[in-house]
Structures are given as C-alpha cells and as structure tokens.
Design goal:
Blueprint lengths: L1 H21 L2 E4 L9 E4 L4 E4 L9 H7 L12 H12 L6 E2 L4 E6 L3 H11 L3 E8 L5 E15 L5 E9 L6 E8 L12 E3 L9 H19 L1
Antiparallel strand pairs: 1-2, 2-3, 3-10, 4-5, 5-9, 6-7, 7-8, 8-9
C-alpha cells in the first residue's frame, strides 16, 4: 500500500513538473518586490512588463517615460519579441509560422494553457473578434480577454503581438505575432523588457524606519 501511494505521489510530482516546465514564463516583479507586474522568460533571463501596466499610454508616451518612470526598462528588439512569442506557442500543433515575421494560432483547445499565460502576464483589454463573409461583411462577433502589445526596435521595424481568450468557450483561443513596418506611434500598450540582473526597488529607508518604530511601540504596549 505504501509503495502504491509513493508511486502515485511520484507520478503527480512528475506531471506537475512537466506542466510547470511547459510554460516558459514565471511571475516576476517590475517596480517593487512582490508587485508581480512582470514575467520572467526563463530560457533567456529577460523580464517582460505585464501587458496591462502601460496599456493606457501610447507608444510615444511610453518611449518618453523610459528615462524616468520606466528607468531600467527598454524597448525590445524584434528577435526578443519573436523568441518570446514563438516559445509560448510554437510547441502547440495549431501554431503556423508564415515567413520570418508572422505566426498565428486558432484553436478550441489549450484553454488551461492560455489561462496560465494570462495568470502571469495579466490582461490589458477586452477585444471583439468577428468572422466575415466573402465580401467582408461581419457575420458573427464575440468578446475576448486580450493581451495586446506593440513594439518598434532601433532599426525602425515595428509590429504587434496579440492573444485572445474568449469568455464564451464556443469560440476559439487565438494568438498572433505580426511584424510589419508601419507607424505605431499612436498605438497603446507597448512591450518593455529588461535584463534579470536589473533589480527591483527595496523598501525605502524611511518606510523601514517607520516599520521599526511601529514594532517597538507595539512591543512596549504589550509589555506595559
């Protein structure tokens, strides 16, 4: 009986390990320890800002804030964006890569996998997907929770990544990576990245001092 229990526990541990390793990103911190507003790409060491952090700002606004509010962060290059997105989806059988700068996936499967990505990266918007007829007229539409981010590297190559998880399971999960040369300056939600060697901020000395004083006052009150 003990051997059987041990074998079952071992199998559970193995399955848990496989499931964990299947997702190449884990929760990380962006600005303060414990804020969980970033994702660490485990096979590159790069840290990606959650999609929702700057989704209220245009690309130009985010770029202008890099020296101040987003110090330590930078705009990713195309190769880094490509590596992140393909590492997330290339192992799924429905992933199609059409050329060097375009990949897409549409599937009714992998719901748990999509949910696990959202649990790490957050969500930045709701989007409407729709089908059209041969003349381009809308036939059907549905709402998805979405990850959407734009990028442009130093060479001026720009693009976007998109991932949609429908609220209604009768519609498919979708992800897209598209590289194109166009103006993204007015687009919202910009991809930002930094090296894992860049540390997040520790609590300020003032906060630590106030916590110490509060602890001393509480201790004095208990002994009174």
């Amino acid at each position: 009986m003990l051997k059987k229990i041990t074998r079952v526990l071992g199998l559970i541990a193995l399955l848990t390990s496989v499931t964990t390793q299947a997702l190449p990103i884990v929760q990380a911190d962006a600005f303060l320890i414990g804020d969980n507003k970033a994702a660490l790409e485990t096979n590159t060491g790069l840290i990606w800002m959650d999609f929702g952090v700057n989704s209220h700002l245009s690309y130009n606004q985010v770029r202008d804030l890099l020296p101040t509010e987003y110090t330590g962060w930078r705009l990713p290059n195309v190769a880094e964006v490509d590596h992140l997105w393909t590492s997330l989806f290339a192992d799924l059988p429905e992933w199609n890569r059409f050329g060097t700068g375009f990949g897409t996936l549409t599937s009714f499967s992998h719901t748990d996998y999509f949910d696990s990505i959202f649990s790490v990266f957050g969500q930045n918007l709701d989007a409407t997907y729709f089908t059209v007829d041969e003349e381009g007229n809308p036939l059907e539409s549905w709402t998805v929770k979405s990850l959407f981010g734009v990028f442009m590297d130093e060479a001026g190559t720009s693009g976007y990544v998109s991932m949609g998880r429908p609220y209604d399971l009768t519609y498919p999960n979708t992800t897209i990576y598209l590289e194109f040369n166009t103006d993204v300056s007015g687009w919202f939600s910009t991809l930002l990245v930094k090296d894992s060697s860049s540390t997040v901020s520790e609590p300020s000395p003032l906060i630590l001092a106030l916590l110490a004083i509060a602890a001393l006052l509480l201790r004095a009150r208990r002994t009174a």
